[in-house]
């Protein structure tokens, strides 16, 4: 995707594109599959930042929207039909852009119910403290799909290089506390696409389901672990 | 009374057959008295003793004991009372769960049928998800040769105060009922804290908070309307004794107090090679998953993952000459999971090179 198209996409998302720009983007999306992917990733990133989970990443709506815009009656301009741009009010184009993003985000809700990660399809983002972590990690993965971000792998971390020394008893605890400051949190999948993150989140959920079932076994609070599961596996031992 | 309750007789009894038979004797008397009249139990000065003694591998836990127990006067007493109440009370309730994903309302029900519990939770907001769990009262560990494995509540109470400080903190009104607030604070930074509000009448937890190491609330579960809570008339069965599966791997380090739980789970997504072991200190739980890394299967990326409030540390490494994926998952501080996942030991190797691993003592 060239820089211009990327800027147009970005402007469109921020409701700052005019109608001409919108048409150009839709046209370019038509011919280039990866541009369309970028568009979807941008929106996915934004909705994840806004913690919107009704995201459908699989559906390509651009064709339908293009048709919708084609059907849209041109705004009544006085005489100067040739000078389209001046005739279009800003609010008009913004409304179209808003409609576009609205449709992409809420989309068709195929995700819920049929899909495993539906209740907790938070991507498996490494995050220090909740929202901030997610907000930082998503654009990195979404925007620079091509650029590789090198992060420390687990074994490179200081604490992993000498497990035997710190092992056993309380001495090990001190080691952890000391080294857990910064390199603890890393995006395990910085190079992966959002789609890959979805797959990771779903896979992670399958482990969490088993963990939740196990945790509900011991007496005490059964409800809280139970509700962390996806609800798709039958829980409990008969 | 407090000290007595914190260390239920049961644990001391396991080692000496004389005491064991004494306990059985007490139980027989108790059962006989229930047969005569329930009120007689209430007059019994040793009412709380009955809690730890009222279960039996064959029959299960006699729920009617709860009716006779006087209100506990210690935080440990309240907590043990609530552990049993969770199993014994039949109720319907509305609740709300507040997590990082927002607040969602729930309809809950807990029933006991033929001594087996059935718990159903249904989300009332969003997609109609239903959680169902059937189970019996768990055991404190895997089957052991020559000793009886205690019921889970008894096992939890044995070591709980080694790792948590329990404190009663006055009364509050929750869901229109009188509740006792119970603060459970970890004694180290290796586990999360809890705050419970227990119903004065039934000891059922009306509200629960999970707090991280800096005291921030991670998850809230609160009953908003408790309907028809009644004591199950009869026994709730104990889980059968389960044999520990032979694993070629074992955790080299766990936070103090975490003991293996007799749980085996399956998933329709995972193949059978994904081994799962659960460890718990009574309040916090963590899971270890170990599986061979094969080319075709789905794998988690190495590193730290978070889903909701649960963390998962993932490590890929050659263990015993085979590439393996090790996942430590739980609602614990993430650095604890990192340390666990790094120190999983491959048993055959350990046998061969005992000296190398002498620094790593595994917790029992």
From TrEMBL, chain A:
UniProt domain Anti sigma-E protein RseA N-terminal: residue ranges: 6-79
Domain of life per record: Bacteria
InterPro entries: Anti-sigma-E_RseA-like (IPR052383), Anti-sigma_E_RseA_N (IPR005572), Anti-sigma_E_RseA_N_sf (IPR036147)
Entry-linked CDD domains: RseA_N
Transmembrane portions of the chain: 88-111
Keyword terms: Membrane, Transmembrane, Transmembrane helix
PANTHER family given in the database record: ANTI-SIGMA-E FACTOR RSEA, PTHR38104
Protein name in the entry: Sigma-E factor negative regulatory protein
TrEMBL record, chain B:
Residue intervals of the MucB/RseB C-terminal domain: 246-345
Keyword Thylakoid part of the UniProt annotation: no
Sorted UniProt keywords: Periplasm, Signal
Subcellular location(s) per record: Periplasm
First-listed, main subcellular location of the protein, grouped into a coarse class: periplasm
Keyword Aminoacyl-tRNA synthetase set for record: no
MucB/RseB N-terminal domain residues: 90-230
InterPro entries, per the entry: MucB/RseB_C, MucB/RseB_C_sf, MucB/RseB_N, MucB_RseB
Family annotation (Pfam families): MucB_RseB, MucB_RseB_C
Membership in a protein family: Belongs to the RseB family.
Record-given protein name: MucB/RseB C-terminal domain-containing protein
